[in-house]
Write a structure and sequence with these properties.
Length: about 220
């Protein structure tokens, strides 16, 4: 596993609580969907984050949400360009298989910053045959929406209207059946993943066609 120091190039503001950190790539190799460990080189404190950038991007990027009472996310929020962070990895097996890369219909379901690995998927594989459901609280939390083809992206908001669908992603799934041969990738909070998995299995999808990554 690689451990290397990376200089922060830019901080991209998305919402008051959410931002993207762009680091120098520094030779870091990964498969889209994997994650890395970001570590404070001074204190040793660390957290895991899915990689947001494509595997061809010159920068290594991470989508971060500042968590209330979360010391590490606040530390990241106050980093300035030129700062250095230790990045370890890559880790994880939440990657696309040959069926998906060959054009198998694929449904990506995310809540919040769980969209990170899907951003990496889509940016790395422009020909991907996908549909994306993104569940958030408010319309302004459609992180990186411009990165996805409009006809492939469905924003679901649970607390405010003004999105493509007003309600949770699981409500949307209950109203829109999924074909049995669809391969599904789910990333987000455990409650959504459990409920969505049950709905998908109810449509006849096999467990092998439902891949999950839990964001705590």
């Amino acid at each position: 596993m690689n451990k290397s120091l990376h200089q922060l190039l830019a901080v991209e503001e998305l919402t008051p609580e959410t931002f993207v950190l762009h680091f120098e790539r520094n030779g870091f190799q990964f498969k889209p969907g994997q994650y890395a460990v970001l570590r404070n080189p001074e204190t040793g404190e660390a957290r895991e984050y899915s990689i947001y950038s494509s595997d061809r991007d010159e920068r290594l990027s991470f989508l971060i949400r500042k968590v209330e009472f979360g010391d590490f996310s606040r530390y990241l929020r106050h980093l300035l360009p030129g700062s250095t962070l230790q990045i370890e990895g890559p880790r994880g097996f939440f990657v696309l298989d040959e069926q998906v890369l060959a054009g198998q219909p694929t449904l990506l379901i995310a809540t919040g910053t769980g969209i990170s690995p899907f951003h990496s998927f889509v940016q790395s594989y422009p020909e991907l045959n996908y549909q994306l459901l993104h569940g958030v609280h408010f319309p302004d939390e459609a992180y990186g929406r411009q990165s996805y083809a409009p006809e492939r992206y469905q924003l679901c908001t649970s607390r405010q209207e003004g999105s493509d669908y007003f309600g949770r992603v699981t409500y949307y799934l209950k109203e829109h059946p999924v074909e049995e041969d669809t391969i599904c990738y789910l990333c987000g909070n455990s409650e959504m993943i459990e409920e969505a998995t049950n709905i998908l299995e109810g449509y006849g999808l096999s467990p092998e066609n439902i891949r999950t990554e839990v964001f705590f």
